[in-house]
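Below is how a single chain appears once it has passed through the pipeline. First comes the sequence as given, then the structure the pipeline wrote out for it. We keep one example in the README because the format questions we get most often are answered faster by looking than by reading.
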Amino acid sequence: MATTSTVSAAPPVANPPTIATLKAELANEDNNHPEGAVPKLRAALSNKDSLPLADKLWLLSKLCSNLYELKKFDEAMIPAREGLAASASLPMEHVRFSTIVSEILHETGKDGEAIQEYQKIATLLPALAAPETSRKSQLVAADAWHMAGTALLAAGQVPEAQDLLMRGLRIFEMKNDEPGQQVSAMNGLAMVYYRTGRLDDAMREQQRSIDIAERAKLPDAISRAYLRMAHYLSSAGRVDEQFQALLTARARAQESRNDYNLAVIATNLADVALQRKDYAGALQFAEQAIPLVEKSKDIESLRVCWINKGVALNRLGRPGGIAWIQRGLDAFAADPAQQDVAADVQGVLAEEYGFNRDFEKAYLAAVEHKKRSDAVRKATDLKRIAEADARYQASKKQRQIELLEQEQRGQKRFQLLGILAGALGLLTIIVLLISRIYLKRAYRSVSEMSLSDPLTGLRNRRYLASRIEEDLAQVGRQRESGNALNADVVFMMIDMDHFKSVNDVHGHAAGDALLKQFSAILLEEVRDADTVVRWGGEEFLIVAKQSSNADIHLLAERVRARVASANFDLGHGVVLHKTCSIGYVSYPFPAADEARPRWEDVVELADQCLYAAKSSGRDMWVGAVQRGPVGAMPARLDVRMGIAEALFDLQHSEGRTLAWHDGAES
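Resulting structure:
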């Protein structure tokens, strides 16, 4: 972002047009295009030092808006900053240029800086918006509140955003002659409702926005409003209505010749066509979108277009589909900020290999998807740990200061307590004994907390590591004594399908609510003797002790069916239906004179079964259970090798096809 405070000088001209002449020229529709207007405005500003301040500010504002329309944001920031400095003594003009600066910062992803810019002029706005001021003054204040609300919303500060957006909208509605601004403010308010889980309110507010834009005959605003409505319809699962909204948005964008909107709409149309399994339509929309997106320089959307084109080609049985998906995957993987997207695309690649019945590559791609997803989750966890540690260190320093301040007072109190202890004698001893009891209880409470997941209340990995060896040893002794009835132990990995989309669409609070309800279902479906562990993120582990290999598939199917039929209430009227994938492996108890396998290795095998289930279409279970009375681990840590070597028997959901990398089907 350029921050210099002077406008690039235009080539000298013999007779720059007067401001009045320039205004007349730019008022003519034929001349009112950014490409032609920018050179004229720069020429007029070549002698800006001799211009009256009002003319100078008009030229700077007009130049900035034309450069902004051309999406030359770095260049637009130069006249915006110069106008901001020149208008310091004029509150209304100063706020107007500050709002322009904030809008450019928002468009370039610098919402934190946009919020700071707003904070510099926030105290000026109530006076500008007062009832006794001019219409122009009130609209300038409304614009500033609207822009600040938009930046706050983008930064995740939703309640603050709602307050400022409502302030701006009240003025726009009161004046009732700024339909474009009114539509924009309603769009922002609809997004606030959406972010807080009020989907019906979001669509209702968005429809109001559409109605106003239609009455005012604003094709560009209509296009944007329908594009937003399509997003909300998608969240409501109303795919056909979403598709029609996008077609309307495209028609209006074509009227306004807005290439950027057309690029976004074409990209979304390809997405929806894929959901509708209209692969020919998806291919057409993706190919329409690619040149438009390339022109707009929206790199992320371009990568999505490549992937959409690849999936469409692959599903149509045409060559080159996998290569386009791989191209998008490589581009996302090379971007450090897009590793979560790369993990998702890796999952898409696995599914497309599976569709092609190239099962070896499908399996390998699924394993890579698992690695990428784990890496993203680990990075997120590390970030949260670092933030928590920073808060702890700050709190610790404050506590140290407080302790130092209390030290002298504490010494005097300790002396007084000593005197009282001598006087009370036995009573003091009793108090100390009672205190020790409560201290032990508190210690047990803290210890219990360290073995549980704070969100779901389930056991965590630390708990499992502290108990599992003894549990396995106990079952081993039971089997050695000849009592093998219900003496199997099964490790069952469960992963909620497409969980990331819940966080992306509804927010992390909704994701947390979903995980809590999912955890409650698992607890209801297992026995008291079983242990349910939150393994990490949306992955869970059930350790089924005192079980039977012959019946363990019943538990897997019971959990799968219960999750698939559940209504997950995220609050604010949002109810979702979700599925899960399950993989399990029974613990292979060896002969008495052989070393027991590591339980961690068995979990790894269960994980492989889980990802076989996911790569085979999700909403299913895959298991490998010990064959015969004496078990052994495969030579390599590979569940398929264990099945091939007849160490395990393969089980999976009835009526589903499972294919391993060697092409064998079950």
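Residues 359-424 form the longest helix (66 residues).

See the next section for the split statistics.
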